[in-house]
From TrEMBL:
Lineage: superkingdom: Bacteria
Provenance organism: Geobacter benzoatilyticus
Residues passing through the membrane, by range: 6-36, 43-63, 83-101, 108-125, 145-168, 180-204, 210-234
Membrane-topology descriptor: Multi-pass membrane protein
Keyword annotations from UniProtKB, A to Z: Cell membrane, Membrane, Transmembrane, Transmembrane helix
Protein name: Probable membrane transporter protein
Organism phylogeny: Bacteria, Pseudomonadati, Thermodesulfobacteriota, Desulfuromonadia, Geobacterales
Family to which the UniProt record says this protein belongs: Belongs to the 4-toluene sulfonate uptake permease (TSUP) (TC 2.A.102) family.
PANTHER family: MEMBRANE TRANSPORTER PROTEIN HI_0806-RELATED
Length: 263
């Protein structure tokens, strides 16, 4: 039953990663939290396992999605190269911080973030294109912030990188495509960080590599790799702005449900 749930979650998250540029992690993390709780995985590490596993799945989703966007010429590889060093540094630092926090603290941070993303989508809040891509030093700092936050909420960074690139006068389609490529170093560094920092944790479930739960990784990744290119193709033909409003309502429901587990 849980394997089927992982496959269904992966299929949905893969489409989102390609279609909306928000990263499937924004859905993967809360759903894995609910599934892991139902499975009876160790309560003190539920959030850590959900975050680490989410980032590990995005490794595969981002590869599939970025290839589809690259085929359409929608990835600015110069931006990817300039921001990646900061992305990796920030993500590794964030995964270390997450390992020191409790599951409750991580859930609170994620609920706040999910409401932020939902509000941004629902009200169509986006910065006005008013500047150009900054120099290498600033890009390192921006990448560090995006990586740090992304590792704490288990996402590929699209909720942060897409608005930043739009602000820097990049088209929406190119911002989404470039964000998909940026998701790869975030996911790779984040998964490695959670795996290594979780090795010292006691009472983890079988089939765990640190804070990465391998059965969930296999199920979600298998399905998401298949559906991510579908989402990327749909992004060039569907009214993405309208779809984001509907997705924002779904995020509010999931965030509220996760919040009730804290009260």
């Amino acid at each position: 039953m849980f394997l089927l749930a992982y496959l269904g979650l992966g299929a949905f998250a893969g489409v989102l990663a390609g279609l909306l540029g928000v990263g499937g992690g924004i859905v993967i993390v809360p759903v894995l939290t609910f599934l892991f709780t139902s499975q009876g995985l160790p309560a003190p590490y539920i959030a850590h396992l959900a975050l680490g596993t989410s980032l590990a799945t995005i490794i595969f989703t981002s590869i599939s999605s970025l290839r589809a966007h690259h085929a359409r010429g929608a990835v600015d590889w110069q931006v990817v190269r300039r921001i990646s060093a900061g992305i990796v540094a920030g993500t590794l630092a964030g995964s270390w911080v997450a390992a020191q926090l409790s599951t409750t603290a991580l859930k609170v941070f994620f609920v706040i973030f999910i409401y932020y993303v939902a509000t941004q989508m629902l009200l169509n809040i986006r910065p006005k294109p008013s500047r150009q891509i900054p120099g290498t030093g600033v890009m390192f700092g921006v990448g560090g912030i995006i990586g740090w936050v992304s590792s704490l909420v288990g996402i590929g960074g699209g909720s942060l990188s897409v608005p930043f690139m739009v602000w820097c006068n990049m088209s929406m389609h190119n911002s989404i495509g470039t964000s998909a490529a940026i998701g790869f170093p975030i996911a790779l560094a984040g998964a490695a960080g959670y795996a290594v920092n979780g090795l010292a944790a006691g009472a983890l479930p079988p089939w765990s590599l640190g804070f990465v739960y391998l059965p969930a990784l296999a199920g979600v990744s298998l399905a998401s790799v298949v559906t991510a290119p579908i989402g990327a193709r749909l992004a060039h033909s569907l009214p993405v702005a309208k779809l984001k409003k509907s997705f924002a309502l779904l995020l509010i429901v999931m965030g509220t449900k996760l919040l009730t587990t804290l009260l």
